[in-house]
Each structure stands twice: as structure tokens, then as C-alpha cells.
Amino acid sequence: MNKGLKLLLKNLKELYTSVNIKKMALNTKFMKRESKITPEIFLSLCLFSGEDLCKSTLLELRTRLDNNEDITVSPQAIDQRFNTESVQFLKKVFQGMLEKQNKILKEASTLLKTYFKSIKVVDSTTINLPEHLKSTYRGSGGSASDAALKVQLEYELFTGNFIHCDIVEGVSNDADYLPTLERGIEANDLHLKDLGCFKADHFKYIEECGSYYLSKIKSTTAIYVKNDNPEILSNGKFRKSSLYKKIDIEAIVRPLSEGETIELFDIYIGTIHKFKTRLIVTKLTEENKRKRKIKFLKDIKKKKKKASNENIFWYTINIYVTNISDEIVDKEQLHDIYSLRWQMELMFKIWKSTFKIHDIKKVKLERVQCFLYARLTALLLTSSIVSTGKKINSKENGKAISEIKSFAIVKGFFRKIRENIFKGELVLFKLLNRIITSILKYGKKSTKKGGKCTYSILKGVKIYEVELENIAI
Fold first, then answer.
1. CA Rg, the chain, in Å?
2. Helices (DSSP H) in 112-160: which residue ranges?
3. Residue 471 near residue 117, CB atoms below 8 Å
4. Is 130 in contact with 362 (CB distance < 8 Å)?
5. Among 51, 235, 259, 427, which residue is least crowded by beta carbons within 10 Å?
6. What does the alpha-carbon distance between residue 217 and residue 314 come to, in Å, rounded to a whole number?
């Protein structure tokens, strides 16, 4: 048996057993006495048949249970099952699945690289909710919804695993999630950050942990160099405000030719506590400027804002800060590495297009929460199977696997998974092997002309050449 498939089977069988699911149900008080809707049946309804859990009528759900599980219950009985205890039960299953994925990540020692143990990407997606839920999940209002939630996700690129996944209010700031992320930082991680998580103190903390960061820089960020002639006070000490002087990025970029990349050395960022960083600037080509401008103006119109000259300048350049040494990655390669963040955008696209996680109608709060935790668990289960298929594929031929195709393939097997996940190991192994065979055969990625897939990006970076065959991307 393939080692990756064996590990996947082992972790699924540890979580999805009747004994373990019943234990979770008792601990969360979902199960207080014997009932027709057992923990297994409720989990199967929400997890494997729950794509339209917040759209279907109670009568439709009752008929589905009758058809799938051969049990007869009233619509009212199903409605009563969506309560705070059922939310805690599904949340417990989700957390258990998350722990299993992280266990797979920690045990996958063959993925350790020369410099980076893992590449972590963090981002969030907002899901608008019916207005009656605004007291629990506040939205930003205005042109947006008054009720919304935000899913915060930290995603590990090598394995495809979820490191953190939390549901918060739609009005919450991405930067408020940084303390949660900081608890999971380990030495030699590489963190690819978006502007929502841009905070100088956070980057400094990553560096102090022996890890690496790579981030675009906010247009409002002040960039400094040390002042060679600081002001001296009457007491002989230097005036603190004169120790550093701001630099004008626009003046530096103006004389550059199209597509030219430069690196500025001895650069400092930070408002109170300044620290040294590596800064790389690329002046975009006219074609890239045109594409960026279209997107920029579209975003401005959507947010009903006006474009300032400063904002217009920032869409003409790429500018990054990082603590990765130029001996590890040169300045021309940093943009390609940062572009790996599109994996997160792809993941959110899968969430909404394939798993319909945003498809929520006006139903009671507990039903919405059950739907969300079940959808997230389904995504975790699917990503575990897909990442195992990627590892097997990388050792066989290395041709890139499409996430969208692979997730759709696994989702197509949900009825079979529902029927077999609580059965013996041999039955589940045969099913998993069948699913992964389908991924390897029909899940190949179609690369657009001139486009770069994750595999080809990493292949072009010198630090990964030695162990490239072990990367499951």
C-alpha cells in the first residue's frame, strides 16, 4: 500500500468511527438519548448531502433522510435537531479533521526543504448572510450586507492542508487574526502575506521566530534609511526623530525602464520600532499596467471611492519586503514566489463554485452554523484526499494536478464516501484508491499558454531543485 494512502486511511479511520463520533456527540450533548437521527446520520446529512442545507425545505430534508437512511421523521424533528448542541458537535468534528490534517503535515518529513520547511499563505473570504443574522455576524453595511461572516484561512502550500480555519464576524479586521497565526509560527516557515496582514511588528516577530516573510507593501507605509547626519541635542544625544529619514519611492522608480527590478539595501520600516528589511521594486510593463489599471478602476468603482495620484502610481509597480537573503532567492525570483498566493484565491473559488459555501438563505442561525462547519469539514476531507493524490502523482510523473478538477472529482464520490466511511479499512481503502486513480487520470491541469503553474514556479527557483520530486503541489 502506498505510504501516503496508508497515512490518509489511518487518519480517517481514527476520526470516522462510530465509537469516536458517538463520543463527540455525548461530549457536546448532541446525543442525550437514543434517537432515530443518530450522530452518524446527522453528520452524513450535513457533511455529504448538505450542499443545499440552507436552501432546502425541512420537508425536502426529511425526504432525503427517508431515501438515504431509511428512517421516517417529521420536518419538525429535523428542525429541532438544528440547535446549539448540533453546532458544537459539527464544530468538534471539524476541529478533529483539522488536527488530522496537521498531523499529516508534521509527519510528512520528506517535504522538508533546504531552507523552508513549509510555505504558509493566509487570507480571508467574506460570505454575505441574510439580514436577520446581523446581531450574531455583523457585516460592514453600506453597499455591503448588514450581516456577514468572514472565514479566516491559513493554508500550507506543499501539502494543501489547512493550518488554521476560523469563522469570525464580517466586520473583523484581518490584522486582528495575527495573534492566532503567531501561535503557530515555527522556524524555517515561509509566510506569504497579503496587505490585510501587513504589520511591521508581525514581520519582526516572524523573523525573531527564525521564520521568513514575503509581503507586498502598503502604499501608506513609510520607508526609511538611516540618517548619516542626525540632529544632536544640547545634552549630546541624538534626536530620535532624526535617526532615520523617509525616502521617496516614486522618485526612485521614475527613471527605471519597463520591467526593470531593483533592490534597495539597508531599508527600515516600522512606526515606533524600526527594523531592517529587504525591499524589491519592479516597474511594470505597459501591458501589465493596463491590466492592473482595469482591475484598480473596477475596485475603486465598486467601493465608490476616488482614485488619487498616489494610488494610481502604486498600481504601476510591484514592491515587496522580505527577510529572505539574496543568497537564497535573488530579487527576480521573489515575484514568482509571491505569485503562489493565487493558490488561496483558487481555494476560495473552489469553496464557492464547487462547495457552494456562500449559498445561504433565510433560515435560523443554528442551521447556518451547522451548514458552515459541515462544508468546512467537507473541504478538509476533500483536500486530504487531493493532497494525497498529488504526492502520489509527483512521484510518478510530476505533471501538475488541477485543484478545481480534483476537488470536483472527490465531491462526485461523496455519496460513495457516505456509504463507506464508517465501514472497515479494506472497503474504505478500495474506495480511496479508486478516487485517487480518477484524480491521477482525469485531474491533470491544463496550463494556459504563457502561464505558470505552481510546480513550474518552484522548479525555476534554485533552492528547490534538489528535492523537487517530493513536492506535492
1. 25
2. none
3. no
4. yes
5. 235
6. 10
* Positive or negative: CA dihedral 335, 341, 343, 349: negative
User: Residue 161's beta-bridge partner residues?
Assistant: 156
What is the pLDDT, as a whole number, of residue 112?
A: 36
CA neighbours closer than 13 Å in the CB half-sphere of residue 2 = 18
Mean pLDDT by 10 residues, the chain (473 residues): 84 91 95 90 93 92 93 94 95 90 54 70 90 91 82 84 88 91 91 89 94 90 89 86 88 90 89 87 88 76 63 83 88 86 86 89 92 93 89 73 91 94 92 94 74 57 41 34
In this structure, is the dihedral angle defined by the CA atoms of residues 41, 44, 45 and 47, taken in order, positive or negative?
Answer: positive
User: Are the C-beta atoms of residues 39 and 21 closer than 8 Å to each other?
Assistant: yes
Element (H, E) at 412: helix 403-412
CB atoms within 10 A of CB 268: 19
The predicted structure's pLDDT at residue 359: 87
No. of helices (H) and no. of strands (E), the chain: 18, 10
C-alpha cell at 255: 527613471
Ordered alpha helix ranges (H), 269-402: 286-302, 309-314, 331-338, 342-353, 365-396
Sign of CA dihedral 186, 191, 196, 198: positive
**CA–CA distance, 107 with 248 (Å, rounded to integer):** 47
Q: Which long-range contacts (CB under 8 A, 24 or more apart) does 434-437 make?
A: 435/385, 435/389, 435/409, 435/410, 436/5, 436/385, 436/388, 436/389, 436/392
* Helices of type H across 74-231: 75-81, 84-107, 178-182, 200-208
Closest CA to 340 of 181, 190, 128: 190
- b/e per residue, 337-364, with b = 16+ CB within 10 A? bbebbebbeebbebbeebbbbbebeebe
**Helices 84-107, 39-48: inter-axial angle, 10-degree rounding:** 70
Question: Which cell is 96 given?
Answer: 478533529
Q: List, in order, residues 6 or more apart from 233 with CB less than 8 Å away.
A: 239
Closest CA to 45 of 432, 414, 411, 429: 414
